[in-house]
Amino acid sequence: MVKALRYRLVSRRFGAGRFSGGLWLMGQALLLSAVLSLIAPMARAAADEEQFEQLMQAMLFGEVVDVLCEEGQGMAEDFVAAGYGVPKPVWEDMLGRLYDPDVMSRAFHDAMADSLEGADLAPMIAFYHSDLGKRIARLELDTRKTLSGEAAQLAAGEAWAELEPGSKRAELIEDYVQTNELVEMNVVGAMNSDIAYYQGLWSAGFESDQGVSDSEILNEIWASEPEVRADVSEWVYGFSTMAYDSLTDEEFAEYIAFSRTEAGQRLNHALFASFDAVYEQLSRGLGAGTARLMQSFEGEQL
């Protein structure tokens, strides 16, 4: 029952795992903007507002959010395939409200400003204004778009598997993943999103059947951690293999060196904190919306 219900928003975040999945539903219900404002206080100047905007633009953040919204809005087919008895146009309307580009852009902007408050943004801007930084930002974004398809994800995973384990490129990818804690931090984010999804279901009046308690559901979610870790690892290593393939080993090493600096580490943690916060709220809203639609359309029992 639990596995059939869950729609995991796994680690579809910015870069190699940092992309990463609002109680919006009916116009008269809670508004997405109000929900997302809970996790994003009014944007604080992260050192300097002008610098912050320069950093967001250099990292192509606006285009990143557009990709995230397209992915979220495209999940209607998955919900229809789950057989909950809710028409596809209704799912599309729900997801369109939840993954609204303007609201999500503001939420990510505010969350990042909050996470980077007090940080020295100058070295971050300098890196992403460099020729290498510009290329990397574009490579990560383009690869993220490419990996929206299942076939492309499979190809990326195969590309990683085909690398010689002791090769320079394999060592660089491993170093990059470990330096940025991409697997561990994405696993935590994915599990928290699962929990938030159920919290949304419960908040909207969902009651588990077959005598399954809330604690048992949570235990089952955490019991799936090895499976989540395997999925995340496959995605992260496949992404890294594909995204940085056109970089020379020296350029890739330079990117990793930046990731090790104080600025690189601060930016990495800010990205995870921001995306995880927003996606927990999105997952909670998705759960609440699913429960309400099921109740409205008298779909099959969750």
TrEMBL record:
InterPro entries to which the protein is assigned, alphabetical: DUF2059
Record-annotated DUF2059 domain positions: 108-155
Protein name according to UniProt: DUF2059 domain-containing protein
UniProt organism field: Celeribacter halophilus
